[in-house]
Amino acid sequence: xxxxxxxxxxSARRTTPxxxxxxxxxIRHASTQIEAGSERSVTAEVPFVVLGEEARMLSQSVLxxxxxxxxxxxxxxxxxxxxxxxxxxxxxxxxxxxxxxTEAS
Length: 105
Fold this sequence. Notes:
Helices cover 6% and strands 61% of the residues. It is mainly beta. The protein has one domain: CATH 2.40.50.140. It has a five-stranded mixed barrel with strand order 1-3-4-6-5. The longest helix has 6 residues. It is globular.
């Protein structure tokens, strides 16, 4: 699934027992959707987790940065069944983010 929004929360980078970098946070999404033939304003705050190289890149980002992410929804862990977005790819939508050239939306 894909989602666009802004980074509302970003945790400090940590390392899993397997040695992978991991960052958690929240993406704030706002859009207009069509539901039952009528326009509807939609807002949501979606928790996410990201591992590996994408976590390294995200840990250098700033709150409020506009992003487009791709990933899948799943339980946070075996012990914590809360639904989170497991991000596999991050694309910054505007400007130059901490030395990473990003695309305009």
